[in-house]
């Protein structure tokens, strides 16, 4: 048996002479039960997870409790560590894109876009206008579905089951769109370096417009259900408070940071994909508690719908891929008939695309926070180092600071409000 | 129970458990009844780790609704569950936890390995991912896909139901527990290595530089 | 994205002189290489000085190059939220007797888990970190440091051995010393185990 530091033999010795179960403290010859002593003095060790319905994945929390109050909270992560960064060193740049679907699997297109932008920054490529608008559409659609999962699962954690079904119903509509575009509901791999995997099919824009038209009514229903609900307010206001300084010091990002009053959104402060031309607001909270985080995320979904409508108006016919034959695979018909196209195809598939020596960091506003991709290239077709700057990992590291002093049931609510996805935390 | 022969197969005592000499009309009627009851009220233990867990949640939600197949109550406590649905990739750090939860489930229990990661390790042929949970627990149904569509998972559940309907209680080996032996391995080491061997693209993508 | 050098680089050169080994601009980002040993001073100065005010630590990571001539580097990505400026600071661990740098946990709490991950993946120790132990792999992981180039993709051990080591780990044994100091848990330990703990002995994988 493997030992970490101790042998934890936590079994009871069995029954006493009368057949009643006996609980004898281990290592103590005297069988007197210890609960005579000062009852409140002992702190209790409670282990939550890694398999637990409310930890949003395989997260393990070890809590030291004094009664119901948490004295110490020690999170353990790594139960979903997949070695993405190691795998990325063995793949061509385009082959890394399917890997990114699986880190933050709640908003996969956002990851794809982030990776493509990072590689394009490394290679110094300018994408086409249509590609830029399509990527904005992809990011904002995924912001909505990520926040919907957050809404549903947080609702379940706090006892409200119905919004889970509503949010998953809305997600199904977006999944239909994602499937029509890329063929996959959850792992789209929609971008390529220098362009997109495919253009949107006929009638897709109408589908998205229809979604944007009807989605706000669901948001209104959720708003009616939660925002002035006494139970919701009682469980979320004043719970899990982080001040603005703490949030900045803990390197939080995304709605966690904005709910604490820090007005920082990568789309506004470090714009990419033409976000500076879109008309949208960034909700910023005040108190830094769970209620503010809920408000921020709800409002963000509404703002994303606004951006989607503007993007649809902005969409013009045109090429989605950069017209660089060294970068983009030629269409199959040409590759089979034209010698040059065949050579380009061969070189890309067999040797990959080689960026210049250098390094690049690109951060985008993922629904969870700032997702950053850091590439170091040595001139070969596979990166020397691929680093994912994981917003959920860093947001989760502030969990002990929020939980200490809170009640046990608050821990579940606070954990839900961080909006983690373990695939990204553990990579 | 799974199709794999565990390490302890040879040590099973086969003489003491047989209840009837051979299947007959009575046993088949009783089988039909118990299998019908079991297959239509499978309570899943969703061991959801990654992306497949989200597709599992979508399957449980209103559009696909596995409640119509009897999986009304998602049992997050293994003590009250029938089917262990491993949805997602399992790293080695999670392996003992998974095995512990499997052991905590009472018989009769079945296992669905949902998705390519749980079935074989998928594209993650590296230092950290278990190359198929069948190296650790016995699996009844493998559902391929990355992630499998909800319809795919439902088909897998229906296959499991069909499998359960083919069971008979006169088989003494059917509900045998397969405890881990002293080596703490579910399969013999050679078999684990054989199952985990790289195949397909994994064979070629082992060079870091080009 | 202009290719201009960030003005912080010049200010750093002025303040720290030779500790700033070189300044590089790559893909629009400014990278400052500092001498090993001075990294904490440089980062503290960047955080505290008016005009720099890099109050946000975006990332801490490390890079192991394929070229054996280039040593391990530790990378800090900094950001000034107010000035909307970014900076990347690197230090190279070439020729160091041991892989160790100073922790910046005292400057930014966000460095906590980021440094633990670098330790876990590369084996670089961070002096001054309050709780430096593995975070993504389990604490008694014996195969090595996964993101080093000397670590093969599938690990050093065979699959059977990896499975055996993983399954041999009793889930209840995965408690750290800090957790076991919680009174109820410690009090339930057998006396001989308590004695072993007080002697500072740790268990190993059998």
> What structural class do the secondary elements of chain B suggest?
alpha/beta
Order of helices and strands of chain C: HEEHEEEEHEHHHH
> What value does the Rg of chain B take, in angstroms?
18 Å
What's the number of structural domains of chain B? 1
Report on the biggest sheet of chain C: 5 strands, mixed
Tally the beta strands of chain B.
4
Poorly predicted residue ranges of chain B: 1-5, 7-18
- How far apart, in Å, are the first and last alpha carbons of chain B? 45 Å
Task: Please outline what is shown here.
The complex is a heterotrimer of chains A (427), B (210) and C (206). Chain B is α/β, with parallel strands linked by helices. Chain B is built from 6 helices and 4 strands; from the N terminus they run H-E-H-E-H-E-H-E-H-H.
Question: Can you describe this structure?
Answer:
The complex is a heterotrimer of chains A (427), B (210) and C (206). With 427 residues, chain A is α+β, with helices and mostly antiparallel strands. Chain A has a domain at 96-384: Cytochrome-c3 Hydrogenase, chain B (Orthogonal Bundle), CATH 1.10.645.10. Chain A contains 17 helices and 10 strands. Chain A is globular. Chain B has 6 helices and 4 strands, in the order αβαβαβαβαα. In chain B, strands 1-2-3-4 form a 4-stranded parallel sheet. Chain C is globular and about 60 Å long. Chain C has helices at 7-16, 39-48, 111-122, 159-168, 177-180, 183-187, 191-198, and strands at 20-26, 29-34, 56-63, 73-80, 85-92, 100-102, 125-127. Mean pLDDT of chain C is 83; it is low at 202-206. Helix content of chain C is 29%, strand content 21%. The chains are: A alpha+beta (427), B alpha/beta (210), C alpha/beta (206). At the A-C interface, β5, α1, α8, β8 and β9 of A face β3, α3, α5, α6 and α7 of C.
């Amino acid at each position: 048996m493997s030992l970490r530091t101790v042998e934890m033999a936590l079994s009871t010795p069995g029954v006493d002479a009368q057949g009643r179960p006996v609980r004898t403290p281990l290592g103590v010859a005297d069988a007197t039960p210890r609960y005579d002593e000062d009852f409140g003095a002992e702190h209790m060790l409670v282990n939550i997870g890694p398999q637990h319905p409310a930890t949003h994945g395989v997260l393990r929390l070890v809590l030291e409790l004094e009664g119901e109050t948490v004295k110490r909270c020690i999170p353990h992560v790594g139960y979903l560590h997949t070695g993405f960064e190691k795998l990325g060193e063995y793949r061509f740049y385009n082959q890394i894109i399917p890997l990114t679907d699986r880190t933050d699997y709640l908003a996969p297109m956002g990851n794809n876009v982030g990776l493509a932008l990072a590689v394009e920054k490394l290679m110094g490529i300018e994408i086409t206008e249509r590609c830029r608008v399509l990527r904005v559409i992809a990011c904002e659609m995924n912001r909505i579905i990520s926040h919907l999962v957050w809404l549903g699962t947080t609702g379940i954690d706090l006892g409200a089951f119905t919004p889970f079904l509503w949010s998953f119903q809305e997600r199904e509509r977006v999944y239909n769109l994602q499937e029509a575009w890329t063929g996959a509901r959850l792992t789209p791999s929609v971008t390529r370096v220098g362009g997109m995997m495919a253009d949107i099919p006929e009638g897709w824009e109408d589908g998205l417009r229809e979604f944007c038209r009807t989605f706000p009514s669901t948001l209104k229903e959720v708003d009616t259900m939660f925002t002035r609900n006494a139970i919701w307010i009682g469980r979320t206001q004043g719970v899990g408070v982080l001040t603005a300084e703490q949030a900045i010091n803990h390197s939080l990002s995304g709605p966690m940071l904005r709910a604490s009053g820090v007005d920082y959104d990568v789309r506004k402060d470090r714009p990419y994909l033409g976000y500076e031309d879109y008309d949208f607001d960034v909700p910023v909270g005040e108190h830094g508690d769970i209620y503010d985080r809920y408000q921020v995320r709800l409002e963000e979904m509404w703002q994303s719908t606004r951006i989607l409508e503007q993007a649809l108006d902005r969409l013009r016919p045109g090429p989605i891929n950069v017209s660089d034959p060294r970068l983009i695979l030629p269409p199959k018909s040409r590759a089979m008939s034209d010698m040059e196209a065949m050579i380009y195809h061969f070189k890309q598939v067999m040797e990959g695309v080689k960026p210049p020596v250098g390094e690049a960091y690109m951060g985008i506003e993922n629904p969870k926070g700032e997702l950053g991709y850091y590439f170091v290239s040595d001139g070969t077709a596979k990166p020397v180092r691929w680093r994912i700057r994981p917003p959920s990992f860093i947001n989760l590291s502030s969990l002990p600071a929020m939980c200490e002093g809170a009640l046990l049931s608050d821990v579940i609510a606070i954990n839900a409000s961080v909006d983690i996805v373990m695939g990204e935390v553990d990579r | 129970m799974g199709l794999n022969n565990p390490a302890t197969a040879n040590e099973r005592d086969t003489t003491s458990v047989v209840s009837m000499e051979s299947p007959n009309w009575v046993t088949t009627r009783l089988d039909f009844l118990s299998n019908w009851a079991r297959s239509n009220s499978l309570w899943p233990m969703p061991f959801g780790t990654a992306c497949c867990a989200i597709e599992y949640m979508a399957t449980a939600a209103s559009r696909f609704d596995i409640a119509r197949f009897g999986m009304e109550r998602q049992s997050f406590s293994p003590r009250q569950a029938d089917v262990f649905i491993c949805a997602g990739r399992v790293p080695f750090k999670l392996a003992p936890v998974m095995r512990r939860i499997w052991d905590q489930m009472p018989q009769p229990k079945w296992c669905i390995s949902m998705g390519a990661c749980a079935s074989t390790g998928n594209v993650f042929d590296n230092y950290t991912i278990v190359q198929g949970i069948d190296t650790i627990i016995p699996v009844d149904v493998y559902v391929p896909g990355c992630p499998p569509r909800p319809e795919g998972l439902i088909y897998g559940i229906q296959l499991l139901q069909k499998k359960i309907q083919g069971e008979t209680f006169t088989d003494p080996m059917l509900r045998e527990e397969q405890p881990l032996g002293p080596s703490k391995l579910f399969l013999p080491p050679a078999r684990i290595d054989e199952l985990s061997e790289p195949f397909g693209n994994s064979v070629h993508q082992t060079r870091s530089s080009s | 994205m202009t290719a201009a050098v960030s003005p912080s680089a010049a200010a750093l050169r002025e303040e720290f002189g030779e500790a700033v080994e070189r300044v590089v601009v790559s893909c629009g980002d400014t990278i400052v290489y500092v001498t090993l040993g001075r990294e904490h001073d440089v980062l503290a100065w960047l955080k505290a000085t008016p005009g720099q005010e890099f109050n946000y630590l975006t990332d801490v990571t490390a890079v192991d190059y394929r070229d054996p001539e280039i040593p391990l580097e530790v990378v800090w990505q900094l950001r000034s939220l107010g000035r909307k400026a970014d900076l990347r600071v690197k230090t190279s661990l070439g020729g160091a007797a041991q892989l160790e740098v100073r922790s910046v946990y005292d400057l930014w709490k966000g460095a906590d888990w980021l440094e633990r991950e670098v330790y876990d993946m590369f084996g670089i120790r961070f002096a001054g970190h309050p709780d430096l132990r593995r975070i993504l792999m389990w604490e008694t992981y014996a195969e090595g440091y996964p993101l080093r180039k000397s670590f093969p993709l599938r690990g050093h051990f065979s699959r059977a051995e990896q499975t055996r080591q993983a399954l041999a780990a009793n889930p209840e044994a995965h408690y750290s010393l800090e957790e076991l100091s919680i009174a109820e848990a410690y009090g339930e330990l057998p006396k001989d185990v308590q004695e072993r703990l007080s002697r500072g002995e740790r268990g190993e994988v059998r």
